[in-house]
Amino acid sequence: MKTVASMRLGRRIFQLFLSLLVLIAITFVIGRILPTDPVGTLVGELADPAAYAAMRARLGLDQPVLVQFGHYVWNMLQGDLGVAALTGNPVTEDLWRAFPATLELATLAIVLSMLVGVPLGLAAALRRDTWVDQTIRVISLVGHSVPVFWLGMIGLLVFYALLQVVGGPGRVDVYYEGIVPSVTGMILIDSLLAGEVAIFQNALTHIILPASMLAYAAMAYITRMTRSFALEQLSQDYVIAARAKGVSPARILSRHILPNIAVQLITVAAISYGSLLEGAVVTEVVFSWPGIGQYMTSALLIGDINAVVAATIIIGVVFMVLNFLSDIAYTLLDPRTKEAG
């Protein structure tokens, strides 16, 4: 049994590294075929031909493509993602500063989506084909259909401009910027660590709207999947027998259905979390959130390929790692997979 489990784990690790290699290869190709000039972006369009040639040689762009790819992979393994024309800093440093903001936004969004989506999915399953079920399904359909950027702009107009119940764009008000020392890079945690309750409250008013808008689409997916999982369990013999014995629906949910779909929900949560990290690009632009999404958009507008490709790789790696961890958790927690091994 242990040998089979070890082989399965090794196979998944191999698949993870293979997927990573494919991702790196795709980003390398995209960086070479895009109609932008990385050398011109760094030295300027009016640079001296000798300076242009020197920078081209420094970047290794005068070498064969396979040699360029080998250097590309080797530098990446060493944490060298190039220099960002956008800031003049190493891309790794820029991403290190921007990623915590995206992580904070996506983490709050997945928490909100799970807290709302799972109960809604269970309620829809228990009240199947009733007005409750139909209403929840309509809410989910809207979440799948409405573009996040449009929803974000409407949210800003209603809750910030008209009702003034949330903070505006950015992470905190201007007069709070730079006060809290950056420890984790996440303003909510850092403000609590510094004992700045007022800044924490202000940051919370700023993050709650973009997190809610970002969570809506994930909540729609989680609701639909939870409903599907719960309906499958409700048709099982053990649930029918429990109902025949007069067991309350609440007890059936807490003692039988939830434990049986918990493992599946872990996978759904991991997929949703990765999608939120990816989908934060548009949300961050709308709300001027200084994360990877806004950084990538700003870099793309000036043709900074190093920054765009590096940000894409980071998001892709996080997505693959989350799927890998959810797969491992599924294997460890679901006894049926152990029996199959």
Automatic annotation (TrEMBL):
Membrane topology: Multi-pass membrane protein
GO terms of molecular function: dipeptide transmembrane transporter activity
Cellular compartment(s): Cell membrane
Main location: membrane
Sequence ranges assigned to domain ABC transmembrane type-1 in this UniProt record: 99-326
InterPro entries the record matches: BPD_transp_1_N, MetI-like, MetI-like_sf
Transmembrane feature ranges: 12-34, 105-126, 138-162, 203-222, 261-287, 299-325
Pfam families from the UniProt entry: BPD_transp_1, BPD_transp_1_N
Chain coiled-coil ranges: none
Gene Ontology CC terms, in alphabetical order: plasma membrane
Keywords: Cell membrane, Membrane, Transmembrane, Transmembrane helix, Transport
Family per record: Belongs to the binding-protein-dependent transport system permease family.
Protein name, as recorded: Dipeptide ABC transporter permease
Lineage summary: Bacteria, Pseudomonadati, Pseudomonadota, Alphaproteobacteria, Rhodobacterales
